[in-house]
Amino acid sequence: MRFTKITRAMLAAMGLLLCSFLPQQKKVRIFSIGDSTMCDYDQQYLTGFGGDSLYPIRGWMQMARTLFPPYVEVHNAARSGRSSKSFRTEGYWQKVIDSVQQGDYVFIMFGPNDQKPDTARHTDPHTTFRQNLVNYVNEVRNKKGLPVLFTCIVRRKFDSNGKIENTHGDYPAVVREIAAEMKVPLVDLNRKSAALLESYGPEASKKLFLHIQPGIFPKLPDGKKDDTHMSEYGATKVAEVALAELKNLGIFSF
Fold it and tell me: What is the pLDDT of residues 238-248, one digit of tens each?
């Protein structure tokens, strides 16, 4: 019995020694900034509509967190309703950039709320929106971080030919231009999500968004048809597309 205990101890020690020579996967940190299509929704929000079911809204980065390998640490700072302007003026950006360290990734995705007419959020795509994104990229690089630009997810609006209509104006095009000019990796979720929706078609694509039947939630007695925000299923599908693009860019190899 004593010999068995000694043998087991020696084997355990040898195992630890061998593990010490194996390459350790370096932890990767991701900070993400954006709007409601990207953000996390907490339990209090999801249960706030009543009924027996959780409200199905999710942000794609919220769902992406479960798809990354264990060595990836996600800090999703995206906030509902924010534009490239208000995310900074309300103080959210300062908290993020103060935390960014050398080698950290910062995912940047804005556009839909920059279209809003109120002065707190509105930006012009070719001037103030462009400058805001340039500033974000430069500030990340000044901290020796790694910016990645994302175009915004499409809204569910089909034309008569079954193609997704552009409801975001010039904002996605400006993101593409900046990515090319500043040599920033680009995940073109606008085009990729359009292709995703078109693969489902006008009817089946409803399950990607918040199409809620009447009577499920007390606060929504008439149900809801929201073609901007994603369901849990839709956000997961978009997250899968985003991760596939990150792998194609060579940013992640999992």
Answer: 999 999 999 99
Per the structure, the count of domains in the chain is 1
Q: What is the DSSP letter of 24?
A: P
Tokens for 116, please give them: 């809003």
What number of CA atoms fall less than 13 Å from residue 200's CA on the CB side? 21
- Closest residue by Cα to residue 115 from 149, 77, 157, 155: 155
The tens digit of pLDDT for each residue in 159-202 reads 999 999 999 999 999 999 999 999 999 999 999 999 999 999 99
pTM: 0.89
- Among residues 50, 86, 26, 42, the alpha carbon closest in space to that of 252 is found at 26
SS3 content of the chain, % helix, strand, coil (to 5): 45, 15, 40
81: domain CATH number is 3.40.50.1110
Report the pLDDT value the prediction gives residue 15, as an integer from 0 to 100. Answer: 47
DSSP 8-state symbol, 211? E
113-125 pLDDT, tens digit per residue, is 999 999 999 999 9
